[in-house]
Structure formats: structure tokens, C-alpha cells
Amino acid sequence: MAPAILESLLGRNGRAVCRICQSETGIMIRPCACAGTMADIHENCLNEWVSISKAEKCEICKESYAQAERFRPIHEWEKPKITFRVSLFYFQQRK
Fold first, then answer.
1. With a threshold of 0.70, does the pTM exceed it?
2. What is the top-level taxon of the source organism (predicted)?
């Protein structure tokens, strides 16, 4: 492969380049079927792009973005429904 093509694929330091911010630093992900210079992206850059553009699919390869599962913030968790009978049983067991 020609050096100029290789540099455009990997960046000047031989590392992947984020297709949004063009940075070579940080951990990159490949959230869709794109390849080459369009494959790598920071997860934060992708999340920001998706929230701004409201795009659910890649505009290049048309594949849905694969995003990592995340835990919801604790204030969004559902609290367990505890009946009086369950709480009475629980407190009796602690004695």
C-alpha cells in the first residue's frame, strides 16, 4: 500500500483517526459496517453525533449503530414493590 494512502487510513502516527473529531488519541470503536477511514470513532463522538442528528443508522453504510449497553443512572432505577407482608417477614428474620 502506498505511504500516503496508509497515512490517511491510520493517521500520521500509524494510529486510527476518529471520523468525527479527527483525533488519533483515545479508544476507538467500530459501531457499524464502515471500513477504512470511516470505521473508527470515539464512543463519545458517536453519542454526541446521534443525539444531535437523531440518526439511528450510519449515513454511509445504512447499518444501525451498535452501541454498548449502559446501566441507567440510579435515579432512573425502578424501586422494588415491597408489601407489608414481605417487610414483616424480612424484619422477623433479622431478630
1. no
2. Eukaryota
